[in-house]
Amino acid sequence: MSSIPANQDALLLRERTSEALKESGYPVEPSTLATMATRGGGPPFQKFGPRVLYRWGDALAWAQSRLSTPRRNTSEGEVLDQAAPAESEPPSVDSPPRVTTPTIRRRASRNTEPKPVV
To answer: The pTM is what?
Structure first.
């Protein structure tokens, strides 16, 4: 029996969502869905008491959005990924541009005394 729902509005538990995505060709583990539910980046979900429910159409659309563009070799991917425009909403005129800076963590030195200059 197929675990892929015929109805796009079907609500599935996390385990069943994972099974249906796998059967559709998207290898996603239930633990990955759980992690993404807490950290973000996963498909939208709803709560029914303590349980998490995913709308099948939303989960499938999320998985499809994670696919790369078709490519013929591994080198081609870098060029295509850079040329493909992001499908996110453009920033509003009122909002300032988002600037992200990498966080650099340095290991604390065991010797806290300054080194003598020679």
So the answer is: 0.63
E-assigned strand segments in the chain: 11-13, 46-48, 51-55
Q: Which two tokens stand for residue 110?
A: 């065991």
CA 35, CA 42: separation in Å to the nearest integer? Answer: 8
Cα(42)–Cα(55) distance, integer angstroms: 12
Calpha distance 6→82 (Å, rounded) = 36
CB count, 10 Å around CB of 57? Answer: 14
Evaluate if residue 29 carries a pLDDT over 60. yes
- Distance, CA of 87 to CA of 56 (rounded, Å): 22
Dist CA 15 CA 12 (whole Å): 8
